[in-house]
């Protein structure tokens, strides 16, 4: 399977449609469905970091990212003050429990299905992020034309943002709401 999870796309938009409709539209437009998989990403940070002060995941000095790609590629990435380590893991729950015992707190839990489409050199990726919505990532504006021609609405106000930043902002709003109760 070709790797799509680390590829950066120029555009990331939230789409107001369901996955099946988007897949049918892309197939009708001669795109081929070249990959489907699920991915789980859990970000954990030391309890010494104030979650509400985090502006961007890239600026964190210390975190652990636990990933599961389709159930057969489980690993964790540990970052501490500029140094990054990678390790394969067998059990997501056991790893998360161990990190909790080491005073790490869950910052973000992303669970999503990914559908990758290609037409010649053009790529479109649909991400169904559980409890966040459906997003499309792509490199060229032809995808926008496809959506508009098929009367599929989308959030065009945030075309150049990262899906993980959206999830981070939603998590921070949720924490603030809990604190205000």
Model description:
This protein is an alpha+beta fold and 181 residues long. It has one domain: Hypothetical Protein Pfu-838710-001. It has helices spanning 19-28, 92-101, 142-149, 163-180; strands at residues 11-15, 32-46, 62-69, 73-80, 83-88, 104-119, 122-129, 133-138, 154-155. A nine-stranded antiparallel β-sheet has the order 5-4-3-2-6-7-8-1-9. Strand 4 and strand 5 (83-88) form a beta hairpin. The N and C termini lie far apart (46 Å). Residues 1-6 have low confidence and may be disordered.
- Round the Cα radius of gyration to an integer and report it: 18 Å
Reported CATH architecture? Beta Barrel
CATH topology annotation? Hypothetical Protein Pfu-838710-001
| Spatial strand order of the main sheet | 5-4-3-2-6-7-8-1-9
Approximate strand percentage: 35-45%
Return the CATH class.
Mainly Beta
The average pLDDT score comes to 84
Report the helical percentage: 25-40%
Globally, the shape reads: globular
Number of domains: 1
Largest sheet: 9 strands, antiparallel
Category by helix and strand content:
alpha+beta
Distance between the termini: 46 Å
Encode the helix/strand succession as letters.
EHEEEEHEEEHEH
> Can you count the helices?
4
Name some characteristics of this structure.
Hypothetical Protein Pfu-838710-001; 4 helices; alpha+beta; 181 residues; 9-stranded antiparallel β-sheet; 9 strands
Summarize the structure.
With 181 residues, the protein is α+β, with helices and mostly antiparallel strands. It has helices spanning 19-28, 92-101, 142-149, 163-180; strands spanning 11-15, 32-46, 62-69, 73-80, 83-88, 104-119, 122-129, 133-138, 154-155.
């Amino acid at each position: 399977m070709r790797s799509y999870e680390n590829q950066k796309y120029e555009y990331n938009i939230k789409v107001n449609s369901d996955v099946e409709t988007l897949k049918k539209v892309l197939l009708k437009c001669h795109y081929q469905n070249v990959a489907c998989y699920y991915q789980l990403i859990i970000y954990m940070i030391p309890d010494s970091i104030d979650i509400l002060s985090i502006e961007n995941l890239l600026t964190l000095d210390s975190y652990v990212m636990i990933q599961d790609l389709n159930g057969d590629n489980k690993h964790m990435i540990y970052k501490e003050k500029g140094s990054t380590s990678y390790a394969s893991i067998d059990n997501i729950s056991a790893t998360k429990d161990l990190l909790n015992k080491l005073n790490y707190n869950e910052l973000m839990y992303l669970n999503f299905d990914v559908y990758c489409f290609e037409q010649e050199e053009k790529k479109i990726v649909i991400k169904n992020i559980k409890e966040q919505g459906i997003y499309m990532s792509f490199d060229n504006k032809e995808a926008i034309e496809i959506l508009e021609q098929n009367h599929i609405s989308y959030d065009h106000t945030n075309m150049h943002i990262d899906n993980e930043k959206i999830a981070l902002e939603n998590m921070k709003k949720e924490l603030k709401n809990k604190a205000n109760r």
